[in-house]
Amino acid sequence: MKDPLKKCIVAITGNQPEPRNPKTLERWVVLNGGKFSSTITKDVTHLICTWDDWKNKAPKVKHALDLGTVDIVTYDWLEDSIMDKKLKRETPYLLMTVEKGRRKREKKEKKKIIAAKERFSDGCAQANQELLLTDLYHIYRDETLFEYNVNLVRTDLSTNRNERYNLKMYESHPVPHMYATTVKFTRVGGGGSRTLMPPPAYFGDAYREFRRFFKKKTGFEWDERLDPRKNKIVRSGEGSGAGSIPGGFPGRDSLFAEPIRGYGGVLSGGIDNPEEDRQFVYIPPRMGQPSGLLPPNWVEDEQPQQQQQGQRRSG
Question: Which residues lie across from 13 on neighbouring strands?
Answer without folding.
Answer: 49
